[in-house]
Amino acid sequence: GIISLISLAVLSYERYCTMTRTTEADTTNYRKTWTGIILSWTYSLVWTAPPLFGWSSYGPEGSGITCSVNWHSKDANNASYIVCLFIFCLVIPFGIIVYSYGKLLCAVRQASAINKATGQTREQRILIMVVVMVVCFLLCWLPYAAVALIATFGKPGLITPTASIIPSILAKSSTVYNPIIYIFLNKQVSKTL
């Protein structure tokens, strides 16, 4: 799940850099791509390894079918890890996504002011993609984050195993939705396929 969130943030920043760069992109150089992949996996590993070393723990999630961070433990060790996960693995990636797509949209608006005919259509396509990406990100991850925070800081038993299933499925299925959004809303990818 975290690799999915971080990959979305890296991808949004990469799109922003590519679209706002004045020079032509070098499609034969995969160095930036590999750097983004390695950084995404490293960042995710940094935030998923601490329970293996005693900062919080892993255990059955919700209905007991899957394994996740122990959301139900009320001690300070666990609560601090949950808060850090929330900030560094949800809020910051979301901030990067909003920043990158916001800046990208501003750049497209400036370009469309110069070339009104193609700029307006391009701006609308990018705006739709930005809105869909942000809404999907929030729909997939906000319920899961809310359930985790309620389970950690709320009254014991407030989140039943049944109530935690849908947010968990939504969050874990986000990796399926993201490629679909990019394929159908990115004209360059659609043409390539």
Could you characterize the architecture of this molecule?
Keywords: Chromophore, G-protein coupled receptor, Membrane, Photoreceptor protein, Receptor, Retinal protein, Sensory transduction, Transducer, Transmembrane, Transmembrane helix. The chain crosses the membrane at residues 79-101, 126-153, 165-185. This protein has 6 helices and 2 strands; from the N terminus they run ααββαααα. It is mainly alpha-helical. The protein has a single domain (1-185), classed as Rhopdopsin 7-helix transmembrane proteins (Up-down Bundle). It has a two-stranded antiparallel sheet. The protein is elongated, with a radius of gyration of 19 Å.
Write the layout of secondary structure elements.
Blueprint: H1 2-20, H2 31-48, E1 58-61, E2 66-69, H3 76-114, H4 116-153, H5 161-185, H6 187-192
Antiparallel strand pairs: 1-2
Helix pairs in contact: 1-2, 1-3, 3-4, 4-5
Low-pLDDT segments? none
Strand order of the largest sheet: 1-2
Query: How do the SSEs run, as a string of H and E?
Result: HHEEHHHH
Structural class: mainly alpha
CATH topology: Rhopdopsin 7-helix transmembrane proteins
Shape label: elongated
Q: CATH architecture, please?
A: Up-down Bundle
Q: How far from one another are the termini?
A: 27 Å
Count of DSSP strands: 2
Radius of gyration: 19 Å
| Mean pLDDT across every amino acid position | 81
Q: For the record, what CATH class applies?
A: Mainly Alpha
Share of helix, binned: over 70%
Q: Which percent band covers the strand fraction?
A: under 5%
Tell me the number of structural domains: 1
